[in-house]
Amino acid sequence: MSVIYLLITISIVVAIVFLGAFIKAVKSGQYDDDYTPSVRMLFDDEIVKKENPNKLIQTEKQKSI
Amino acid sequence: MDTENCFHCGNEIIKKDEIVFDEKKFCCNGCKTVYEIFSQNDLTCYYDFQAAPGATPQDIQGKYDFLDNEEIVTKLLEFQERTTHIVSLYIPHIHCSSCIWILENLQKLQPGINASQVNFGEKKVRVTFNPEQTSLKDIVYLLSSIGYEPYISLENFDEGKKKVDRTLIYKIGVAFFCFGNIMLLSFPEYFEVEEYWIDQYRGFFRWLIFGLSLPTFVYSASGYYVSAWKSIKSGLLNIDIPIALGIVVMFVRSTVDIVFDYGQGFFDSMAGLIFFMLLGKLFQQKTYDFLSFERDYKSYFPIAITKVLPNGDEESVQVYDIQKGDRLLIRNQELIPVDGILISEKASIDYSFVTGEAVPIEKKSGDKVFAGGKQMGKVIEMEVLFSVSQSYLTQLWSNDVFQKRVEQQHKTITDRISRYFTPTLLALAIVSFIYWIFIDVTTAFNVFTAILIVACPCALALTAPFTLGNVLRILGKRKLYLKNALVVEQLAKVDTIVFDKTGTITTNKKTAITYEGTELNSSELRLLKNVLRGSNHPLSRRLYDFIPNQEKVETSNFEEIIGKGIFAEIEGNTIKLGSSQFLKTMTENTHKKTKVHVEINGVYKGSYVFNNQYRKGLEDLFSDLAKHYNLVVLSGDNDGEKRILEKMLPTKTTLVFNQKPEQKLQYIEQLQKEGKNVMMVGDGLNDAGALAQSNLGLSISENVNVFSPACDGILDATQFDKIAFFMRYSKNAMKTIYMSFGLSLLYNVVGLSYAVTGKLDPIVAAIIMPLSTITIVSFVTIMTNLFANKK
C-alpha cells in the first residue's frame, strides 16, 4: 500500500515542476505582452504566399518602362 | 468629386496631387516613397494585413541631430555592449497588424539591425542592432522615412530601466498551485469514509496539506497582513483587517485541529480564499500601457536642442545643459525649452500646448519668448534667460499646487462598509464565545474561530474589485480610459462639472469658416487657393483645406509678411491676404473674431471668418447634464463668445472668462471649499493645475496617443457627447456594488448561523466560500454589462 506515498510524491513533484516553469515564464516577460504574439504567429505563412506575384508585377513594370 | 484613397495612408487623394506608381494611387510623394522602399525590399505584404495602414513620413531634417551626441545615445539605450545595442522606441503610429509586421522586419531594410520586436500594448519597438554597422540615428531616420517616427522626449532621458512588478502573478501562481493540490488531497476526508485505508493514511494526508498550505499562508497572503497592520497603526479599519484575521485564525485553528486530531482543518478554504482574492486584485489592475496619466513637462520637451557656438558652429546640447546667455536655434515645429529673448527678426509662436489657444502669437526681435511655445515657420535664434529648471513653465510644474495629490482623502466604498463590518464581526464573535464558555469550553473556542473564518469577508472584498475592474474595461472599450478602479467611484460622486472652453467644448480640428463680402467667382477662388498653397501659417492651412480643389497655377511673385499676411502675383493679378492692418483699405474692424481679409487687384472683396466650432452633441450633452449637475464653463479667452454660449447652453450654466491657469485652479478650489465634488474636463497644459486640483480630472484628447496633461482619465474626443452616459454608468456601477454587498452579507448570515451554533464543518466552509465567490463575480459581471447596454 505504501505505493501511495510514491504516487503522491510524484504527483506533487510534477506539480512543482509546472509551478516552477510558470514562474520562470513570467519572469522572462512572456506574459507582459499578451497581444503581439497572437498577431505575430499569423505572419510567416502569408509572406511565402504573396511574395512571388508582387515580384512579378514589379519586373513587368520595369520592362514596360 | 472622386473619393479615391491613398494606397499607403488611406487619406483622400486630391486629383491634382495624385501620383500613380506600380498601378497604385498615392496622395503624395512621401507615401509613394514608402511604398517604393517596401516593394524594393519585398515587403509589400505590409499592405496585405490591413488596407492603407501607413502614415505619410514627415520631414525631419535636422530634428534628430542630437543622436550624434554619444552621451544622449547612451542614456537612451537599454543595453550596451561592444557589438550589441538595444533600444526601445515609443512609436505612436503603431495601430494594426501591418505595423507589427513591418517593424519586426526592420532587419530587411537596414543591415546592422539584428532583430526588432514590437510590444503592441505599449506601442514600443525594441531594436537590437550592431553599432559598428548602423547607429541609433540611422534607425530613427529609417523609421521616420517609412512613416513610423519614434517619439523621443526628455522623459526618455530621465527614466532609468523600469522595473516590472510581477509579484502579484507569482503570488497567484503559488496560491493556485497550493489550492489545487490541497483540494485534491482533501477529497478523501470530505466523504468521511471510516475505512481502514483512510485511517491509515490520514496523518500523512493532513500533514502534507499543512505543508502545502504554508507557501500560500506565508507568501501569497503576505500583502493582506501588511495592509491590515498599516491600517491598524493608522487607526482606520479597512477591509484587510477581517481578511487577515480570518486567514490567521483559519491557519491556527486548522493547525490545532490536526495536531490534536480534532479534524482535517480549513486549509482548503484558506487556500481557495487567498487565491480568489488575489484574482480579484489582478482583475482590478487593468492598465493602459500606451497611456500615461502622470505626465509632466518632461514628456513634451525635446531631449536636446541646437546651440549656436560663438564661432558660429552649431552643436546639439542636452536641454539640462543649457545655460543663461546661450544662443539657441529653434526650427519649425520645435518646442522652446527655456525662457529667453528672441534674436531673429520675427517669430510666430504657437502656445497651444500651454494655453490651448491654437492661433500663433507673433513676436518681434527683443521680445521675450517663454518655454512651451512651438515655433511655426522659419528657423529662429534666441538667447537664453533662464535655464530649464528656472523657466516659467517648469516653475509652474514644480509648484506644489500643480502636483496631483496622490493620497486624496478618499475612502473607498469597501472601506466604508468595513468600518461597520469589522466591529460587528468582532462583537458577534466575542458574545458567542462568552455564551458558549458557560456550556463547553472547547465548543466556545470552536465557535469563536468558526465565526471569524466563515465571516471572513471574501465575497465582500471581491465585490468592488470585480465590479470596478469590469466597468474599467467596458469604459476602456468605449474610449474613456481611467487611471484606476478608484476613479469610477469618484466619477459617481461628482456633483459639479467644470469644462474648459478652447479645445474641450470646441474642437481645434474643424473650424467652421464663413465668408463675408462680395461673392468670389471660381477663377478668383482658384487664384486664392494657389496663393495659400505657399503659406505655412495655420490660418492659411485651414483656409487652404476649406477652399475646394482647384487647378494648380504657379505664383510668379510670393511674399509672406509674418504676422501680417501674404502678397502674391499670379497670372498677372495681385492678391493680398491677411489682417485688417495689412490691407489698409479696411473699414470696419472687430477684434472679437479671427478674420482673413481678401483683396484682389486692389479691390477689397471680403473676409473669411473663423468661428470656433463646438463639439458635436454639445447642446444635448449640457441639457442632459444640467438635470443632475452644476455646470461651469471656464475659459482663458475673452468673452467674445459669451452670447453664443449663453444661447446654446442651459441657463443654469455658469460662464467665466479671462481665466489664467492659476485662476482656474483657484476657482476649482473655491468650489471645493463650498463642499462641491468637482470634475474638471480640460485639455491643454493651461488646465493642468485645475485638473490636478479637482476631485477628478478628465482630459479630452483628439488623439489619445499624443500627449495630455496629468489627469485621472483620458477621454477620446469623439466620445465627448457620451459624458452623460459615462456619469450615469458610474452611478449604476455603484448600485451594483451595493446590491452585491447585500448578497454577500446574506451568505455571511447563512455561514454565521452554522458557526454560532457550533456546527461548522470543514466541508460546509469549503462549499460556502467558493459558491459565494462565484455568485458574486457572475452577478456583478452580468449587472455591469447590462447597465452598459442601457442608454
Automatic annotation (TrEMBL), chain A:
Keyword Nucleotidyltransferase recorded: no
A Pfam family hit: FixS
UniProt cross-references to InterPro entries, sorted A to Z: Cyt_oxidase_maturation_cbb3
Keyword Cytoplasm: no
Listed transmembrane segments: 6-23
Record keywords: Membrane, Transmembrane, Transmembrane helix
Matches recorded under NCBIfam families: ccoS
Name of the protein: Cbb3-type cytochrome oxidase assembly protein CcoS
Natural source organism: Flavobacterium proteolyticum
Automatic annotation (TrEMBL), chain B:
Primary localization: membrane
Membrane topology of the entry: Multi-pass membrane protein
Organism for this UniProt entry: Flavobacterium proteolyticum
Family: Belongs to the cation transport ATPase (P-type) (TC 3.A.3) family. Type IB subfamily.
UniProt cross-references to NCBIfam families, sorted A to Z: ATPase_P-type
Residues spanning the membrane: 168-187, 207-227, 239-260, 266-283, 420-439, 445-472, 737-757, 763-788
Keyword field: Cell membrane, Ion transport, Magnesium, Membrane, Metal-binding, Phosphoprotein, Translocase, Transmembrane, Transmembrane helix, Transport
Compartments, record wording: Cell membrane
A Pfam family recorded for this sequence: HMA
Domain of life according to the entry: Bacteria
Name of this chain's protein: Heavy metal translocating P-type ATPase metal-binding domain-containing protein
Entries under InterPro entries matching the protein: ATPase-cat-bd, ATPase_P-typ_cyto_dom_N, ATPase_P-typ_P_site, ATPase_P-typ_TM_dom_sf, ATPase_P-typ_transduc_dom_A_sf, ATPase_P-type_domA, HAD-like_sf, HAD_sf
Protein's UniProt keywords contain Repressor: no
Domain HMA: 85-151
